[in-house]
Inverse folding.
DNA sequence: TATGAATGAGATTTCATTCAT
DNA sequence: TATGAATGAAATCTCATTCAT
């Protein structure tokens, strides 16, 4: 399996660094090869083409989110607590890796539509986990049972994503992780059962 | 003033159509010129360069959002109602113009970072209006007075934007405007005063 | 006759200024028109095309050289003195008009071959006057009767031209006119030591 | 070193041919590439840009002049004989290569000022050799010790250059090399009759 | 596996010239 | 005569990908 070959990860990490430092449009294959310490042609022994590097990069890094969140979901926290953990994890991973944050929030969005659709389908697995939390919350009576799962998922992901992007665009000059609690609160309020109307 | 000359709008509208139909990276100046019914060189009598077309396009169309929302804000609706109107307007404008929706949600995001920052500064005016609604809601006691305005704004814009993008990516196969009420409800719940905890 | 119409000289003078200030390749017709205070289209009422402006400019300015030299030739100076006068005049005219010097020595040489050939044919009249002086010198026994007139003319013009060009390229930081005497001396006497003076 | 790679000279020679045949302004990179038998992009592996091709071309060919003249200078000819050898060499090199003559005398002068200044600084090495001959002649008492070296150099180079240019413009229809002696004679002795020989 | 020299398609922008007013 | 908005042809350079070694 290609993923086990040493240069596979080497090239992906080089891509993250090069894209973060030079920007998506200045991240030529030759620059990535140089950063990875391999020849240009070697890239093509591990990846079908440049787009494949980016998708693989996204798949690889998305695991960092999915593995953790899967753990939380399997655990016996309440749905609201699971959501908090998920948001915290999302913020922590990106706050811990500046390059990755820049790449996922800013640079990778400059790609063509075709690539974006492929990235979206990688993202789907993550979003499905969000859906599971929402459904569990509704079933357990913690969230309003009349919620539109898709809309709520969009609210959650939209809010989280916009929060991270704004943070990156502001040069990460405030603490992202500490925003997890208030963001969670805003979302939970939105999902919460109406006490009395 | 260039904006009053007939070909200014003509070229911008042509750009929207061409970008929507062919995608950002296939929207060559010559294609836009042809669609606008002018010579390639004529484009440069109205716009400094290709990037300038896109920024102008965004500025021009952003007015469709800002003017309406400014009206609502000036009116005597409650903050919650103003927010609903804003969301409705946002969805209506984009639902009514397929090309524009594709361009703003998908194509214009493929531009380089530099252009995106310029687009963001145009967007700022719109976001400021959202801030005004949030603040008014907090002052009038309709929203929780302890809210972090920036976070709430990010939630609102993030949710609305994600909702529209998902709708566009799903080929607009369901009704966007009817999502205004439930999206608004989700947001209001998030902002609402805690009745009892 | 077009040359008598007021805007003819106005446009030529504008061309000299614009070319001197912005360089040949940045001397667009629209810039010349603006400097001359006329509309772009007006240029074409006086000149067939851009090339025609330049040739006319050269013809016009070449008169400054030819008229004077014709006078000297008609006078009763010795051939050697006539040559000195000619060189002096050449240097004086260019030293007195910085713009003209830059245009003739540097900018006008960047034109395409076709234009240069036309300019050369304008120059021919001037070179013919040089030939007359040489021939007269030979006939009067002041110059060696075995001289190849064409070669001598090339030496004279080549030396004079190279001297002016070097002076312009050195930002005209020394006095050009005072070089007339030694240049004349070199030409008349050559480098060889006079066996007896 | 790039100069040792076979395609470096191949491209330069192709440039000389293409420029001579089609003229400077019609010497597109793609034409040069085709003539050199390489792909357009290959040009840019050897040269920074189009201007770099021209400067390199000039540097490369200038060696043909400099090497020979350096030899003569090192030899034990008299200064006057060295000068004759230099002029002869200058004429021989250009007479032997029609394309090169057209390129250096006509086409390369149509370039913008910036490039011309760079070419001039390459030329400087050659002119320095001329200066050496002049100084040696003055020291050895062969030339007038009161000469202004710069002026003499301008006379020599101006005369030689003008002679070659005229020859090229006249379609090289007479023998250039046989002009070396009379040109040398003119320079050495001037037009003045020797009072005693 | 690994290399890296070579490939070649493709698009923005300028500016001399025209022509309807 | 005079205007100036509109025209449209034309060329440099980049960079993902290949393939002979």
């Amino acid at each position: 399996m290609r993923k086990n070959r040493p240069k596979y990860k080497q090239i992906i990490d080089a891509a993250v660094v090069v894209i973060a430092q030079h920007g998506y449009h200045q991240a030529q294959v030759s620059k990535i090869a140089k950063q990875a310490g391999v020849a240009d042609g070697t890239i093509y022994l591990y990846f079908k083409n440049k787009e494949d590097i980016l998708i693989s990069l996204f798949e690889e890094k998305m695991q960092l989110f999915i593995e953790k969140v899967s753990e939380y979901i399997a655990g016996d926290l309440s749905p609201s607590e699971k959501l908090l953990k998920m948001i915290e994890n999302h913020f922590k991973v990106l706050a811990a890796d500046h390059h990755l944050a820049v790449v996922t929030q800013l640079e990778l969005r400059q790609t063509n539509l075709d690539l974006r659709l492929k990235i979206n389908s990688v993202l789907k697995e993550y979003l499905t986990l969000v859906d599971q939390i929402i459904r569990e919350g509704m079933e357990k009576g913690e969230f309003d049972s009349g919620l539109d799962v898709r809309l709520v998922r969009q609210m959650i992901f939209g809010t989280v994503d916009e929060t991270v992007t704004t943070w990156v665009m502001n040069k990460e000059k405030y603490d992202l992780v500490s925003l997890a609690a208030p963001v969670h609160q805003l979302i939970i309020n939105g999902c919460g059962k109406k006490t009395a109307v």
